Amino acid sequence: MGVLAKGSLIRKQIILMVGDFMVGMSILLLLKTLRPIPNEISPEIWIVLFVPVLILSSYFCEIYNTRTWALKTFATRSAIATVISFFVLIVLSRLSGLSWHLISALIAFFMFQILWQALYQKTFDISFFTKNIVVIGTGATALEIDRMLKASPGKYSLSGYISTATDPVDVEKNKILGNIDNIIELCKLFKVHTIVIALTERRGNLTINKLVSCKLMGVRIIDYPNFYETMTGKIPVESINPSWLVQSSGFLITPFIRFMKRVLDILLSSLLLLLTLPFFPVIVFLVKYKSSGPLFYFQKRVGKNGKDFTIYKFRSMKTDAETNTGAAWAQEDDPRISNFGHLLRKSRIDELPQLVNVLKGNMSFIGPRPERPEFVKQISQATPYYMERHAVKPGITGWAQVMYPYGSSLGDSIEKLRYDLYYINNLSLFLELLIVLETIKVILFRKGGR
Question: Which of these, 340, 323, 324, 342, lies nearest to 332 by C-alpha position?
Answer without folding.
Answer: 342
